[in-house]
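Posting for a labmate who doesn't have an account.
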Amino acid sequence: MVGEIRDTETANMAIRAALTGHLVLSTIHTNSAWGTVSRLIDMGVPSFLVANTLNTTAAQRLIRLLCPKCKKQAQFTDDLYPKQFKPYNKVEHHFKAQGCEHCYYTGYKGRKAVYEVIPIDQELALEIKDGNMYIQSLLKERGIQTLAENAFTLFSDGLTSIDEIYPLLFNY
């Protein structure tokens, strides 16, 4: 177990341990699961080593849920999205945080995790070795949903607000 990969030395240590057959679990700060690959390569780990040692990469975020007692429905307009963002489906209305005694006047009650998990198979390993960092279409073919897509589902289902997922939409 490696607490966090922050620098070249730690990245190389984790890769060496994985090369000897050990299962290495660690964290690394990225905006997406695929961002792990480019971050390791940026840290100086050769792409062929990343391709041969990485089994799965995951990204997660906690999203605050709107308080079910006081959330307020409002009309939605596309100008509330980040610039350049293309919505996954049409949203007619959304909910806003209000605040009540039940949620201590925050408008939110509880959290839900959203995930992006990418199992690295031979085809993805070849993309890593070739230095191809633009694999969104390949992930889409496999049905792998991004953090943004999973967060957007919470929003379109009325469970959270646009404010809460906005930073995730901005990254894609």
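Reply:
Got it, the structure tokens are right above this. The longest strand covers residues 108-119.
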